[in-house]
Known about the structure:
This protein is an alpha/beta fold and 388 residues long. It has 11 helices and 13 strands.
Amino acid sequence: MEFERAASLRDSIFALEKLSEKQKVVADGKVNRDVFAIYTSETEGVMAMLSVRGGALVNKSEFVLSVNELTSPEDAVSLIVDYYDSSGNIPREVMLDFPITEEDKTLLSEYLSLGQKFKVAVRTPERGAGRALCDMALENAKECARQSRLEGEREDKNLKRFSDMLGLGYLPARIEAYDISNIGNENISASMVVVLNGKVKKSEYRTFNIRTVQGADDYASMREVIGRRLSHIGDGTPSLGECPDLILLDGGENHVRAVRAVMAERGMEIPLFGMVKDDFHKTRAITDGDREISIALDRGVYTFVYNIQEEAHRFAYKSSQAGKKKTVTHSSLEKIDGIGPKKARLLLSCMPLAKIRQSSKEELEKIKGISEKDAENIYGYYHKNEGR
Length: 388
């Protein structure tokens, strides 16, 4: 009766069966080709690819797209061009499961052949081994679409149950989660991760560097961050201009109360909850500031919330680490006589710190804005123990 686990096991078995197909599809040892197929439904589009190198099937990939991104064969051709622009691994032959005009075939062949020592053939096979590979790619695309649909349905169910637990009365289309990260009393930052329609949307993520709080004060930092974030609602700023349907904080009732006061000052009422961790730093419950709502007994909801909280923490830590690295790098250069923040930025814009340490005086002098005396000081600072 463990339906979700059963579905996961079934998917794993299917994946293993698909993996074994690599042993079944073997062409002539000289064959290097990629095969593309597209499948569209009312809700999504999938482009699938099979890569054959040295006659063996060495890789398969599926790209899930919105219906608007894959409305015609021309869209698929554009996606293929984008794929090769990124990967650069161009085979001698490209096979397509779908028909395109002879003109488009010629243009695609000429484009992919640029910079190669061979001409890339573009074909749409109707029979034989090529047709069999196209059929396999199409089946992969269909299965990927099915899996994507099932995953979406599971996410929708989890989001619906989560909404019911919180008593929202609606599905929150935009969820924002916040976490504070600091290293000592410096480099304090906050992350804002965004979940749109049940799925993380990394292009909407934002980072806030704490400006007004001295030292590690999570409550004050969270008040500052949420206050700054709410000030952008409706101003057209990408991501920040949108109004969230639900705000989640990494913290307990005190975090919620601190932020609720900020909302009250601005006359805003946005559903706000804290994600409470246990002594082992695992998500334990949700709090509205007055009561706790247990999510431990619903595995789907628990996983949904846990993943959001971990993503907020990961992104906050990453931002804080980046700030620390920048501070350490600059402070190292600024210890050198005659090198202040401006010249430190100038040096780092020309080369990384490791290269600066290894550079000769002559190389450093070539940097515009760095004098002969500066170059001597920099070289002397990093080589003062040589010869001792």
